Amino acid sequence: MACINADGTISRSAELILLTCHTGASCEELAREVKLPLFRIRSATRELVTAGFLEPAGENFRTTDKGNKALEGSVKV
Amino acid sequence: MEENVPMQPRLPRLGEPVPSFEAETTMGTIHLKDFAGSWLVLFSHPADFTPVCTTEFIEFANLQEEFRKLNVELMGLSIDSVFSHLAWIRNIEKNFGVKIQFPVIADLDKKVASLFGMIMPGESKTETSRCVFVIDPKGILRAMIYYPLTTGRNMQEILRLVKALQTTDANGVATPANWQPGEKVIVPPPRTQEALEERLEAGFECKDWYFCKKNL
Q1: Is B167 a residue whose pLDDT tops 60?
Q2: How many Å lie between the alpha carbon of B103 and the closest alpha carbon of chain A?
Q3: Is B34 in CB contact (< 8 Å) with chain A?
Q4: Which residues of A touch B29 (CB under 8 A)?
């Protein structure tokens, strides 16, 4: 798991993705903002959706309540 | 009369879609479709912590930016665990000062290696040979290279190969032996008499009707 650590916390790149998705973002927008290759964004968003931290919204992804809670304490939302 | 013939997986062929897969890598779980829209150089190496493979990883890493400029991603593979890959990558960074920034598949169950025919039992039943698969943005296999365990690959040649394929796609031409970007390309031979006559008047550099070159 690249986004979710063994102890259940999220990785730095996952934090950035969740932050960027606060108002909704596509994979292409995430790749630009987070400065990661598109294939890594696609892999990460899939993992974060499966774990319930993100939800698809059309072509975009949005941070869920669970994603927002995961961000609390690690970074300011 | 029916015979029990063991089913062999159908290996990828040039010009056809490559088999889909999902694999654990040093950058998380990656699906082939994650590379849609990019070229992908998928390559296997025999084993982590071996000297020839280490030189190959260093050279791929050194050229990664060149590949990126061509919209090409790199992905390695061997029949090792992700922990072994991570330890080896750290070791390369520590000993050679080179950071490996492409994913490496941990193919312990040989699933991807078997799909792509990367294991050559005549050489080794437990290691992948030095295979390279060049996959285009639509998931079509465009080139394959197989090297034995003993011989390191030439990464500049892989880069040249991708440039040649992209030049072919962009311009509808072929590339001659030892072609390098900027050099003349081959105009495909004509298939009709009309096309033959047209090309002789087109100002190409022709040795004969079937052998014409041009600048791009």
Answers
A1: yes
A2: 9
A3: yes
A4: 1-2, 43, 46-47
A2 assigned to some structural domain: no
Q: How far is A49 from chain B (nearest CA, A)?
A: 13
Among the partner residues A2, A37, A38, nearest to B28 by beta-carbon distance = A2
Contacts of B175 (CB under 8 A, 6+ apart): B164, B167, B168, B185, B186
Contact A67, A53 (CB under 8 A): yes
Q: With an 8 Å Cβ cutoff, are B28 and A39 in contact?
A: no
In SS3 terms, A15-59 reads as HHHHHHHHHCEEHHHHHHHHCCCHHHHHHHHHHHHHCCCEEEECC
Any domain includes A77: no
Q: What is the pLDDT of residues A32-57, one digit of tens each?
A: 999 999 999 999 999 999 999 999 99
Residue of B1, B34, B42, B27 whose CA lies nearest to B134: B42
Q: Does B70 touch chain A if contact means CB atoms closer than 8 Å?
A: no
CATH T-level assignment (fold) for domain B172-216: Antioxidant, Horf6; Chain A, domain 2 (3.30.1020)
Q: What is the pLDDT of residues A6-21, one digit of tens each?
A: 777 889 999 999 999 9
Percent of the residues in chain B that have a pLDDT greater than 90, as a whole number: 86
| Class of CATH domain B22-154 | alpha beta
Q: Known catalytic residues of B? A: 53
Q: How many domains does chain A have?
A: 1
Opening angle at CA B30, ends B89 and B15, nearest 5: 105
> Which B-chain residues 76-135 have CB contacts (< 8 A) with chain A?
none
Q: Write the pLDDT tens digit of every residue in B94-152.
A: 999 999 999 999 999 999 999 999 999 999 999 999 999 999 999 999 999 999 999 99
How would residue B4 be classed by pLDDT, with cut points 50, 70 and 90?
low
CA-nearest residue of chain B to A28? Answer: B37
Chain A residues with beta carbon closer than 8 angstroms to that of B73: 37, 39
